[in-house]
Specification:
six-stranded antiparallel beta barrel, Pdz3 Domain, Thrombin, subunit H, seven-stranded antiparallel beta sheet, single chain
């Protein structure tokens, strides 16, 4: 009897184990087919992008990815994929190749919008966009792109985090609000989609750090940027003109209130909305438009930066701040953010200049905002022989002031018949004269061309 009961118990455990194993295999089979289905549905909307770029005298190719968001031929990708472009070629899943036009780009979010003209006999499939605000940490996602040039490769992972901040070694800080994923985002994947298991795009992949750290721009931000670029070709953002830093516990103790929370103002830009409103260095911002502020670390400043950028320019906002231990209420009229990405002009004389934006002026510690900044001088060129140096600021052309980028371009373009061109430059803190003698023209030589992958 005991033996019969033991056998029955064994058979019951065995059948449960077999059933559990079968159920487990069935679950994984369903997941497998779901991933395959989602991958198949998004791949036709993913494109391969090849960009010919020119930087100074060097020409090179950059490879990246993009996402069709409109059947009329509009494609989202990364700004760093198409930056410095002279030609953009897009290859569809069908292997058909089309030249693309750059509609606009936004360096702060690393987004760009391009467009291809598609023949009537070609039907594009646009991706289905989701809501990145509803993304949850831990949910499964799929990244699709062209890593290392391998078309429409698929990687699988989870959302590892939200609201991530990346401090990249660039002169222009990003407006950070990244989705972090462990789905692989390798060089060449930039601009491809991150998709949830409902087949909805929740982000545009920007860059990977290491094997399991990928960062994606939320699709809600991408749609907002796309709409602004389509409407006006430019991005309008709110701006106060303050330099901020975290208010940590040491600063709070120094100010006499260990529990104090806010954002510390370390500098106020000349002529900015903040200066006009009466904000001063050393002030602690406590509230902005009814929203309490708190920043213990650098990453915490990102939330306030995003709030300011989304504020409508021309609108008055109430600010509560702390100054010398006393609370003070001010009204500030939000300004429009100055130009972030400076224009460049490559002269036939062998040098390149950049527009002096507020950002460039501060980062390069220049003496003046007037003129143009020399970013490159070709070795052996007319400019090089005339002793023009990288880092010079050209303020005059042939004894006439060139107060800004556009006036400098007109002066150079109008001097093609001149044998000599005299520049007045600021080098460090000294004024120098640079004479370009066109009779010293060097022989033409072939330029190099390199191929790289967008990170």
């Amino acid at each position: 009897m005991k033996r019969t009961g033991l056998i029955a118990a064994f058979l019951l455990i065995w059948s449960v184990s077999v059933r559990a194993q079968s159920d487990g295999i069935e679950i994984f089979d369903k997941l497998k087919f779901l991933i395959i289905s989602v991958s198949d549905s998004i791949k036709p909307a993913v494109v391969h992008i090849e960009v010919v770029k020119k930087k100074n005298t060097q020409r090179y190719e950059s490879l990246g990815s993009g996402l069709v968001i409109d059947e009329a031929g509009f494609i989202l990708t990364n700004e760093h994929v198409v930056d410095d472009q002279t030609e953009i070629m897009v290859t569809l899943e069908s292997s058909r190749e089309y030249r693309a036009e750059l509609i606009g780009a936004d360096k702060l979010t690393d987004l760009a919008l391009i467009k291809i003209d598609v023949p009537d006999d070609v039907s594009l499939k646009a991706a289905r966009l989701g809501n990145s605000d509803s993304v949850q940490v831990g949910e499964w996602v799929i990244a699709v792109g062209n890593p290392y040039g391998f078309d429409r490769s698929v990687s699988f992972g989870i959302v590892s985090g939200k609201g991530r901040v990346l401090n990249m070694p660039t002169l222009t800080p990003l407006l950070n609000d990244f989705i972090q994923t462990d789905a692989a985002i390798a060089p060449g994947s930039s601009g491809g989609p991150l998709v949830n298991l409902r087949g909805e795009v929740i982000g545009i992949n920007s860059r990977g750090l290491g094997r399991t750290q990928g960062f994606t721009i939320p699709i809600n931000i991408a749609v907002e940027v796309k709409n602004m670029l389509l409407a006006s070709g430019k991005i309008e953002r709110g701006w106060l003109g303050v330099i901020m830093q975290p208010l940590n516990r040491s600063f709070a103790d120094y100010l006499g209130d260990p529990k104090l929370e806010g954002v510390l103002i370390s500098d106020v830009l000349t002529g900015s909305p903040a200066e006009k409103a009466g904000i001063k260095p050393g002030d602690v911002l406590l509230e902005f438009d009814g929203q309490k502020l708190s920043a213990e670390k650098e990453d915490d400043l990102n939330k306030f930066t995003l709030t300011i950028s989304q504020a409508e320019s021309g609108k008055s906002k109430k600010i509560i701040l702390l100054r010398n231990g006393k609370r003070k209420t001010l009204n500030i009229v939000v300004g429009e953010q100055p130009k972030v990405k400076e224009d460049e002009f490559e002269s036939d004389l062998g040098f390149t200049v950049k527009e002096i934006t507020d950002n460039l002026f501060r980062n390069y510690l220049l003496e003046t905002k007037d003129g143009v900044y020399v970013s490159y001088v070709e070795v052996g060129s007319l400019a090089g022989k005339g002793d023009l140096f990288e880092g010079d600021v050209i303020t005059e052309v042939n004894n006439k002031k060139s107060p800004d980028f556009e006036s400098f371009k007109k002066m150079i373009e109008g001097s093609t018949e001149d044998k000599f061109i005299l520049f007045k430059v600021i080098r460090g803190k000294d004024n120098k004269l640079v004479l370009i003698d066109k009779s010293n023209a060097p022989a033409e030589r072939e330029r190099d061309k390199t191929v790289i992958l967008s990170p």
